[in-house]
């Protein structure tokens, strides 16, 4: 145990860790080590590994043996590198203590800066910096941050003291305060700590350090970090590392600064250095969005019409170094980097680098550009894009023809347009979402505590903060439209309204945001779907060249089918015909068909429905022009089509000439205790064969018509649902084949068609070998297969799924992402058994899982021929299929 290495050092051009040790050192620690190896200016430091975090929680919040002495040794090394000592009153070393998990979790965990200050070292710092005021200001910042994070004395205490003091002394801004003022504030702060915490503010620097390390590990399990992990699928077991690093000061005067930079524009992907900085400030000031930062480059300043000078203009030399470092980092990592830096007295220091979060549009542009620049291959470009993030591009944009009133403009922090009623708190946003209302969350600035509300809202508007403020970063990550830093918006939380340009907007009133341009509009502005062209089209075309599986869509209406074709669908994998029956013009005929007590009475309504169904299929076949179309015969229990309310019963009885009593009795007869497992699917097809026969006839007639009129070959695939036994399929297939023969004879035409089945029941999966004797294709209906394998009703799971997920009983919802171990085993088994009975058996999936990237990877592994998903998932599935191919087969 004591042999384990718990602490890794870095600094002075060398490091014990490296970029590929993210699991152990966290992202921040691994990249700090890597930057040292690259010879970049990094303040020396140490990383306590994520294994310590796991050991800490496994061992009742106790640290493992050996950590203590390893930490001391590493601290010693830092002291040597910077030439000062931790706790030395003459020449004190100050450190920052920061979290750093494997995946970036911006702002979710705790940080302590200026650690190592006490009543003695404050004088040493003043001497070393030659600045008393700076030293006392740093000390009071440290007391404030440490007490809040470690001792649980909330920062309001300190703000109140400071505000009162400024009022008394007639000071307006912090910069009015002198060294003596800050010294006084320190005394009062310490008194307040004693009152609230019940003990003195710790003067022992080692006690301070252990306190901060404990707080960072503790913050791994705070509520906001837990929410963030849940939303981003980050496992609890990963833990965080802790980075302790020599402080450098961006607040030593006008030649000092702190900032963040992206090697490319994270919003558009443009290949230009992009970022913000603040002169004479500490790191957290930029991210917190409290002061509005200045641009890095002159061009950006001019574009933003800002009169605050850019870094390029005020610190040209350091700016030049920053540009070089950026280039070096981007070429080394071969990806866009997001870096944090500090300038202390004209010297540049790098504090962090990581792959930058970016909008999907930017991710696509960067990937496509980097291929053109020869930095990455096409395969790498395809693997770089998170398939689910493509959803952002499918988000509506403002309709260019719409008229609207712009009431404010801010920064275009996260693209897409959204409308909703104004709310002013995250809790209200969450509540509104639960009530099914669409809202826009309006805040002065957001903090990690607001994350649940940001998720619930359609869009986010803030009055303060830059492009790298919390709101902007988090909204981009979530794909929520966001306008940040709209300075003219004056929010009054008490009155629950905001004022802008002479207008008052109250809570509940609707506004529209355009996160792509930063515009805020009154009322609801119409939106339009974007065109999928440019970089998107290029990358997805590369994906299409790579992937093996085909991508079809689940669609029954002409509008959905057309959308899916626009998104690149290569056929229909599931046309649920029951939706066609609900159409207002035909529901009466459908009801009459169901209520009929014998086949003779049923013949007339079926005759009326036939031409309508034929028209439906004609339209679908025409839109799909020769691509495969799988039509699933009627599936749901018949009572779903019958009237529920008294007045409807009356109307139906009149329309079809039946007494109300008789109608009610028939409705009761058709009612079932457990309709999901009742008289549906092929069972209904077997008891009322005329319904399936009518549908088959409509399909074949439509196929022959379309082939004749358009010249394209239509090969319809007729799909029988909910088969459990081969005998069910066999009887229905014989009937359908007979209809096919009849239609071909009547029309004097030939027609190719396939009859197949869905695999939706465990028994069907087990008996797949038998079933494939008749079925020419299988489509895995994983919605029902999940329902019947788990024995969990797909309609009733919501009430217990959430606790199952939050308590970790299920890692994910099996109705969303396929349960590969259980349901997946049935799919694999059915695929094998089916294929050994029929070599050319076509295999696909049409449950909701067909649009889920993890499930798509499973389908690739299993060797399915295609996946079928809802139209809006088609681009996602195309990319996910390509990625699966690269990961599994290449
Ligand atoms: C399924 O069960 O997976 C399926 C696609 O059919 P439905 O959702 O219509 O039951
Ligand atoms: Mg089903």
How are the SSEs placed, and which strands pair?
Blueprint: E1 7-11, E2 14-15, H1 22-37, E3 45-48, H2 50-58, H3 67-82, E4 85-86, E5 92-93, E6 95-101, E7 111-115, H4 121-129, H5 132-151, H6 155-169, H7 179-197, H8 205-219, H9 223-232, E8 240-246, E9 257-262, E10 274-279, H10 284-288, E11 294-295, H11 298-303, H12 311-314, H13 316-333, E12 337-344, E13 347-355, H14 360-372, H15 378-384, E14 397-398, E15 406-409, E16 411-414, E17 417-423, H16 426-434, E18 439-443, H17 451-456, E19 459-462, H18 470-478, E20 482-484, E21 490-492, E22 497-500, E23 503-506, E24 510-514, E25 519-522, E26 527-528, H19 534-546, E27 550-554, H20 558-566, E28 572-576, H21 578-581, H22 587-595, H23 599-624, E29 629-632, H24 646-656, H25 660-670, H26 682-687, H27 689-710, E30 716-720, H28 726-747, E31 754-759, H29 762-766, H30 768-771, E32 777-780, H31 782-790, H32 798-806, H33 823-837, E33 842-845, H34 853-862, E34 866-869, H35 874-889
Parallel strand pairs: 4-5, 17-18, 18-19, 19-20, 27-28, 27-34, 28-29, 29-30, 30-31, 31-32, 32-33, 33-34
Antiparallel strand pairs: 1-2, 1-3, 3-8, 6-7, 6-8, 9-10, 9-12, 10-11, 12-13, 14-26, 15-25, 16-20, 17-24, 21-22, 22-23, 24-25
Bound molecules: phosphoenolpyruvate and magnesium ion.
Phosphoenolpyruvate binds at residues 574, 576, 635, 760, 781-784, 846-847.
